[in-house]
Amino acid sequence: MSEDLSIRVRSELYKKKMKHSELAELLGISGAYLSDILNGRRTGPKAQEHVKHIRKILSI
């Protein structure tokens, strides 16, 4: 995930008063795995699917 998108995700979470753990739960993944995606440590096809869902959930 690009750093720009990571910042946008964190910003949208703040705007929506949503916790990192709530987003992870909606995605059906652990908070640690979500953090890995947001920090670019997970970039495979499955992580990219999660990125698509993150964009949809947060409308970005």
UniProtKB/TrEMBL annotation:
Domain HTH cro/C1-type per the UniProt entry, residue ranges: 15-43
Organism encoding this protein: Gracilibacillus halophilus YIM-C55.5
Gene Ontology MF term list: DNA binding
Name of protein: HTH cro/C1-type domain-containing protein
Superkingdom, natural source: Bacteria
InterPro entries: Cro/C1-type_HTH, Lambda_DNA-bd_dom_sf
Pfam families the record matches: HTH_3
